[in-house]
Design goal:
- There is one protein chain.
- The chain has 251 residues and is mainly β.
- The protein is 5% helix and 45% strand.
- The strands form two sheets. Strands 1, 2, 3, 4, 6, 11, 12, 13 and 15 form a nine-stranded antiparallel β-sheet that branches.
- The longest helix has 13 residues.
- 31% of the residues are buried.
Length: 251
């Protein structure tokens, strides 16, 4: 409710008191007061309308370490090509190709300990039964013999997910391959969110958590991150995954 102007009310009250010929019961009934005859009509008090409320602007996240939409060749993610596959930025996306039924990956130049990694992934090529894997590796580190340690959190084109512990290039299941209707199959895109925080490992797909695991006490505590792809069919060893909209942040 708007407050009336106190000066105007005082003037109106003085006018009413001077008009003694008008009894109280004869005052007009209504929401608007009528002017007393013979006295000057006061101009209406202008109404000052308040400005419409505006929403506070959304503040950007302050814990983002880096992000990349791959609109140009990535300065953070590596580019390589070898006998078993390739990795690199192509036409606004990061592409991993596996050509020898082995995991191929492209890793970052920066290292992280506790980290959250988000990206969109799309299988653009794979075996006819969609039995190909696409994932994110956290805490990847290389040994002197070039084998790696780390954690793989992955999905497959036919709708499965898994969390794997990598030791010297060999993988052990912390969460074995499990089917989920949350995962979009075939050539549809999926949004992955991987958390590696202390001994807490979590995989979210399309906004829903599908798997969690406890990292071994002797497991790696820091390392690079990587995108990875593989075909699980030896007679159809080709798989290609497109990764985009990468965001790396601290928990």
């Amino acid at each position: 409710m708007k407050k009336r102007n106190q000066v105007v009310i005082g003037l109106i009250a003085a006018i009413i008191m001077l008009a003694c010929a008008c009894p109280v019961s004869g005052l007009p009934f209504g929401t608007e007061e009528q002017p007393t005859p013979g006295l000057p009509v006061l101009p209406p008090v202008p109404t000052i309308e308040s400005a419409p409320a505006t929403e506070a602007p959304v503040q950007p996240a302050t814990n983002v370490v880096f992000s990349d939409d791959f609109s140009s060749p990535s300065a953070e993610m590596e580019t390589y090509s070898g006998d078993g596959g390739s990795a690199g930025t192509e036409n606004g996306i990061y592409v991993i190709r596996s050509t020898a039924d082995l995991w191929q990956w492209g890793k970052s130049s920066s290292q992280f300990d506790n980290v959250i990694i988000e990206a969109d992934v799309t299988m653009t090529a794979g075996p006819t039964n969609d039995n190909a894997g696409f994932g994110i590796i956290c805490r990847l580190s290389e040994r002197e013999d070039t084998s790696i340690d780390g954690y793989m959190l992955a999905i497959s084109g036919d709708g499965y997910y898994s969390i794997r512990h990598i030791v010297s290039g060999s993988m052990t299941a912390l969460v074995d391959w499990t089917e989920s209707s949350i995962i979009n199959q075939g050539n549809a895109s999926n949004h992955l969110r991987v958390t590696c925080n202390g001994n807490d490992l979590r995989l979210e797909v399309n906004g829903q958590e599908v798997a969690s695991a406890v990292a071994p006490v002797d497991g790696p505590t820091s390392g690079t991150m990587a995108f990875a792809a593989i075909s699980f069919e030896t007679d159809q060893p080709y798989a290609e995954g497109h990764f985009d909209n990468l965001v790396v942040s601290q928990p």
